[in-house]
Amino acid sequence: MDKHERVRAFFSRNDKLAGYLGMELVSVGRGTATAKLKLRDIHMNAAGLAHGGTVFSLADFAFGAAANSSGKMALGVNMSISFIKPGESGVLTAVAREVSAGSRLASYAVEVSDDSGQVIAAFQGLVYRKRDDLPL
């Protein structure tokens, strides 16, 4: 099992909220990650649309995996999200990619899309990289 697969397995096993919500970490690569979520009733807000917290959590899950893809512990220090259109049903997909990285700080962009490939949210995140290795 290569390093990226070990990171994927680590996050899939240890991110308890993602597991509770039904998120799946599909892939992890160098500075990238993809996560999916099949929308269910528990993911919806009072208007019957994907709850903002659900969409943010999916983006954050992909962001965290991408930021830790090097095998070094990286912790989010600032995140923001813009909701572009509502998620209504089906599967949401979050794709995270590294935008820039220094020795301690790194920036990531995440797009969350619906089944038709329409972007429903744009997420930006900044991490602080510790010297500690992930306990893979």
Total domains, how many? 1
For the biggest β-sheet, the strand order reads 1-2-4-5-6-3
Would you report the number of β strands? 6
Major pleated sheet: 6 strands, antiparallel
Q: Give the low-pLDDT segments.
A: none
Estimate the global geometry from the Cα principal axes: globular
Q: What's the total helix number? A: 3
The CATH topology turns out to be Thiol Ester Dehydrase, Chain A
Average pLDDT works out at 97
CATH level-4 homologous superfamily = Hotdog Thioesterase
Strand content: 35-45%
Element string (H = helix, E = strand): HHEEHEEEE
CATH architecture: Roll
Distance between the termini: 11 Å
Tell me what the structure shows.
The chain is α+β, with helices and mostly antiparallel strands and 136 residues long. The chain has one domain (3-133): Roll (Thiol Ester Dehydrase, Chain A). It is 25% helix and 44% strand. It has helices at 3-14, 16-21, 52-67; strands spanning 24-29, 32-38, 72-83, 91-101, 105-113, 119-133. A hairpin with a 5-residue loop joins strand 5 (105-113) and strand 6 (119-133). The longest helix has 16 residues, at 52-67. The model has no long low-confidence stretch (mean pLDDT 97).
